[in-house]
Amino acid sequence: MELDEALRTTFSAREFTSDPLPDATLYRILERARFAPSGGNRQGWRVIIVRNRATLEALAALNEPAAKRYAAQVQNGESPWNTIDPPRVDAAAIARTQPPARLTETVLKAAVVLVICVDLKVVASTDAELKRVGVISGASIYPFAWNVLLSARQEGFAGTITTLAVAQEPKIQSLLGIPSHVAVAAVMPLGRPVKQLTKLKRKAVEEFAMLDRWGGLPLK
């Protein structure tokens, strides 16, 4: 597959067929993905491959608290879980909100689920002392996660980066035996997509790229 096609057609898949994803195919996917860049080339990623049904059900349940808040905020016209604007919905409203199945059950429909982790002992979090949520550590793990999706596309499979369960990270660590210094970066369901999307909706370059400074002329 040409790189241009892969970049333009790799989408977030949440609906899968019953086709299995064999270990040999998954190995090829991860074998390509390992060439992702990371800070200092330390390659702090670790991947737990989950097929056990009981474990998948536990992961699905861990999605629910964050999914409730996500859905409640969306229904209230908010941008959910952002770290700048506090939620305008209270705990009672969140508790009575029914989380959408697509946010909680995808891991139960996938052929396999990858829990993608990063060893924080080898990550340079240069924004750790700034007065905002840290994002820099992601530079050493999310290129790898995206490579997994690109590589899966090459094999005819697809998935998505989900993070709602990570709001319950200590419980995921306990469930899977993950050390406390290892962060959970994504819970990634993978499988054969029911439908391969080829026309993705994205903003035009002019809408996000600006020259010289914030608010500068758009790149055309």
Characterization of this structure:
- The chain has 220 residues and is an alpha+beta fold.
- It has one domain: NADH Oxidase (3-Layer(aba) Sandwich), CATH 3.40.109.10.
- It has helices at residues 3-9, 23-33, 53-75, 91-95, 101-104, 106-109, 142-154, 169-176, and strands at 45-50, 112-119, 158-159, 182-191.
- It has a four-stranded antiparallel beta sheet with strand order 1-2-4-3.
- Helix 2 crosses helix 7 (142-154) and helix 3 runs antiparallel to helix 8 (169-176).
- The radius of gyration is 18 Å and the shape is globular.
- It starts with a helix and ends in a 29-residue tail after the last strand.
Domain tally:
1
Judging from the principal axes of the Cα atoms, what is the shape? Answer: globular
The biggest beta sheet is recorded as:
4 strands, antiparallel
CATH topological fold name: NADH Oxidase
Helix content: 25-40%
Instruction: Indicate the structural class.
Output: alpha+beta
CATH class: Alpha Beta
The low-confidence runs, each spanning 5 or more residues with pLDDT under 50, are: none
Helix and strand run: HHEHHHHEHEHE
Q: Average pLDDT, to the nearest integer? A: 97
The share of residues in extended strands comes to: 5-15%
Name the CATH superfamily classification: NADH Oxidase
What is the spatial order of strands in the main beta sheet? 1-2-4-3
Radius of gyration: 18 Å
- How many helices does DSSP assign? 8
CATH architecture identity: 3-Layer(aba) Sandwich
